[in-house]
């Protein structure tokens, strides 16, 4: 399941260096902080985070913090990407919806572990750039749409898994409605400046909610969320 798409064609040397940096990122920032799923660790090892940020920031791409991606938005810190991915318990057969594509990094990680990823971004410039990067690295099972993601992606529903990578006050009802029976959703829920990951399982049509790590995400904007 890992490596369902081709590796990026990066010049030798640079590629070796970034592979070493990813190895260090996995050991220092993920394994030491409790990420244990070997498939998630392998997906993080293989996804070139440096290609999702501006050239000027590439030296910082494997440190464990968010980085600016333009338009006032950020690429999430590696630990959060790994934790959310681990919580989703992907099976390789899943159809996944992500809200908040940003630069596309989380989508690329999900794409290694799921059958198909549909991802929605409200800012057209970011969606366009994410599409280009995902294509450049060969992530051919990701579909990027420019829209307000609090309404989900009704034409593609239901989804086995849903992940929201921006923080909101509560789970938008259209997203829970588009979650398949037996499916799982992960979203940062809380105030505008601090949230906690909520893990929502849909069981007999009802939500069973558990809480995970504290976190700080950019705002989810739109109906059922915050104002711009
Ligand atoms: N998933 C990204 C993180 C992106 S930051 C990663 O891999 O690093 C969150 C993104 O959510 C921002 O790009 C922001 O523009 C977007 N966003 C906020 N509200 C949204 C909404 N209602 N619909 C779609 N995207 C939204």
Query: What is the number of helices?
Result: 6
**What would you say the CATH architecture is?**
3-Layer(aba) Sandwich
N-to-C span:
39 Å
Query: CATH homologous superfamily name?
Result: Vaccinia Virus protein VP39
Provide the list of bound ligands, each named once: S-adenosyl-L-homocysteine
Share in helix: 25-40%
User: SSE order, as H and E?
Assistant: HHEEHEHEHEEHEEE
Question: What do the pLDDT scores average to?
Answer: 95
Low-confidence stretches: none
Total number of distinct structural domains: 1
Structural class: alpha/beta
Largest sheet: 7 strands, mixed
CATH topology, by name, is Rossmann fold
| CATH domain class name | Alpha Beta
What fraction strand?
Answer: 25-35%
Shape: globular
Structure write-up:
28% of the residues lie in helices and 26% in strands. By secondary structure, it is α/β, with parallel strands linked by helices. The chain has a single domain (12-215), classed as Vaccinia Virus protein VP39 (Rossmann fold), CATH 3.40.50. The chain has a seven-stranded mixed β-sheet. A two-stranded antiparallel ribbon has the order 1-2. Helix 1 runs antiparallel to helix 2. It is globular. It binds S-adenosyl-L-homocysteine (SAH). S-adenosyl-L-homocysteine binds next to strand 2, helix 4 and strand 4.
